[in-house]
């Protein structure tokens, strides 16, 4: 089992197989004896909670089963597996930690449209609601509500744009086209969604930014007093690309560029781009997520987009900004969304693709409109993307699967240093017309991320313990220390098991803030201060 703990899916599947094995023994050899059944349950609860990663692993396992593309399993078979998973969930002591991870994974499935079906998602939430109550699932249900409301808002925005003359625009099935960019924005309630506590930044190109600003004006006119904040880490984009194959200019150096709209010329003195990327006609680009706070105290978040998959609309933060005018000679067969300049070498023939990337990756690719080569430090300074996210984005673009390497890194190492250089991969080729750049990310959290999650959980627990203490004392008025600790533990055990030391600290904090007081005759008895 220690070996299986290195992989979330394997770890949980091994536990499920082990549980099936013991249930078989219990039924066939021990006639479902009650004492044996209780012993099996107690032992499973004990060793499941020995691993402090169990809440994360259980959520990852469910995430894997609820994602699109799970081969060889029908919805009915998935539900059977989820029912078994709920048995393990009942053994879990840190259900509040599981809730935090589940919310993160559900958010990604909804925003990236990866759910196997909405019915399966709601069935799972119903199981959790039955097990833990409506308070446990209220935020999860709120996320689905936001998605529905966002669809309505975007439809209204589309109608407004189609009747207004403020922009040169058109409306498509994928989203609303402004400045050559199809945009679809999701408005998310911050309290429901696991958005970052600090606003993450990214220097989004002008065309996507302008399209989002148009939506911002529309939204704030309808909801005065609210605030929209772009959350680029949650968005995605579809880019229209034309690859002209490997070729060399007079100096013998291959060249490449990325452009939007009508095409662009590779920068840095490069004779011609080997790649042109743009938000061409019919290509929906996706925006990052933004959050908005409502006039009341509740905070709302706007999520611009996840890229469209051709089956349903997807959020989108504009893909590519309008590009500079291409050089006079253009290659034959270049698409309307991007034109390539002929070089002194002979191109192998243009290849058109739609590249599906994250908003961060879009921001990086658009830098190559004006530059032939960029160092890691230059990309970092010009994009303003957080270092951890920038490393992952560049690894996906340059070091991912061979059929997904849009950029070339020099030297070809996984490590990122400020002097390492990146260029466009002129020789990029793929059998697929629509190429999705898979994100390079750990299946589970890294150690720093896990510590940050634990820190947030500990902070939430302080408030939950204090709320339970106040509820109990308000009803009882006077209680001994031991009785209060026992009742608080009993109230919170469905979410987590608070230690007596932690409860004592929260009691002391409430006494300092004059919510409680010690009685003069016995300091171990507390009284509620009205």
TrEMBL record:
BP-aspect Gene Ontology terms = ubiquitin-dependent protein catabolic process
Biased composition annotated in UniProt, kind: Pro residues: 315-327
GO cellular component, as recorded: cullin-RING ubiquitin ligase complex
Which keywords label this protein? Isopeptide bond, Ubl conjugation
Example GO molecular function term?
ubiquitin protein ligase binding
Q: Which family does it belong to?
A: Belongs to the cullin family.
What PANTHER family does this protein map onto? CULLIN
Could you tell me what this protein is called? Cullin family profile domain-containing protein
């Amino acid at each position: 089992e220690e070996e299986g703990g290195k992989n979330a899916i394997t770890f949980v599947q091994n536990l499920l197989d082990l549980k099936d094995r013991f249930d078989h023994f219990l039924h066939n050899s021990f006639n479902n004896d009650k004492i044996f059944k209780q012993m099996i349950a107690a032992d499973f609860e004990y060793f499941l909670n020995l691993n402090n990663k169990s809440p994360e692993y259980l959520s990852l396992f469910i995430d894997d089963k609820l994602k699109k593309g799970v081969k060889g399993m029908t919805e009915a078979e998935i539900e059977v597996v989820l029912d078994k998973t709920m048995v393990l969930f009942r053994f879990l002591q840190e259900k509040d930690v599981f809730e935090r991870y589940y919310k993160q994974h559900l958010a990604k499935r909804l925003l990236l449209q990866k759910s196997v079906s909405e019915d399966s998602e709601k069935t799972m939430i119903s199981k959790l609601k039955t097990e833990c109550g409506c308070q446990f699932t209220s935020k999860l249900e709120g996320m689905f509500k936001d998605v529905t409301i966002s669809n309505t808002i975007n439809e209204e925005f589309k109608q407004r744009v189609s009747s207004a003359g403020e922009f040169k625009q058109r409306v498509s099935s994928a989203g609303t086209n402004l400045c050559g960019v199809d945009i679809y924005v999701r408005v998310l309630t911050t309290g429901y969604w696991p958005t970052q506590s600090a606003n993450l930044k990214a220097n989004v190109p002008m065309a996507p930014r302008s399209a989002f600003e148009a939506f911002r004006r529309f939204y704030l006119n309808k909801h005065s007093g609210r605030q929209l904040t772009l959350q680029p880490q949650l968005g995605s984009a579809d880019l229209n690309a034309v690859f002209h194959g490997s070729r060399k200019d007079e100096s013998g150096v291959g060249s490449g560029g990325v452009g939007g709209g009508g095409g662009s010329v590779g920068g840095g003195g490069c004779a011609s781009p080997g790649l042109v990327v743009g938000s061409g006609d019919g290509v929906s680009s996706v925006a990052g997520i933004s959050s908005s706070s409502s006039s009341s105290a509740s905070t709302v978040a706007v999520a611009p987009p996840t890229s469209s998959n051709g089956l349903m609309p997807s959020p989108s933060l504009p893909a590519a900004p309008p590009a500079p005018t291409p050089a006079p000679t253009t290659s034959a067969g270049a698409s309307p969304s991007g034109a390539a300049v002929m070089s002194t070498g002979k191109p192998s023939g243009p290849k058109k693709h739609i590249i599906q990337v994250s908003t961060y990756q879009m921001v990086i690719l658009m830098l190559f409109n004006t530059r032939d080569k960029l160092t890691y430090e230059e990309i970092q300074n010009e994009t303003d993307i957080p270092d951890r996210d920038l490393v992952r984005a560049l690894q996906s673009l340059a070091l991912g699967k061979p059929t997904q390497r849009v950029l070339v890194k020099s030297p070809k190492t996984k490590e990122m240093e400020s002097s390492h250089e990146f260029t466009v991969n002129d020789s990029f080729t793929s059998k697929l017309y629509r190429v999705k750049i898979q994100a390079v990310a750990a299946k589970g959290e890294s150690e720093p991320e896990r510590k940050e999650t634990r820190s947030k959980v500990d902070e939430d627990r302080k408030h939950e313990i204090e709320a339970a203490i106040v509820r109990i004392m308000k009803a009882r008025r006077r209680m001994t220390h031991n009785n209060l600790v026992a009742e608080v533990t009993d109230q919170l055990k469905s979410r987590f098991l608070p230690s007596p030391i932690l409860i004592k600290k929260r009691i002391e904090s409430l006494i300092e803030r004059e919510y409680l007081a010690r009685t003069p005759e016995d300091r171990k008895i507390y009284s509620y201060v009205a």
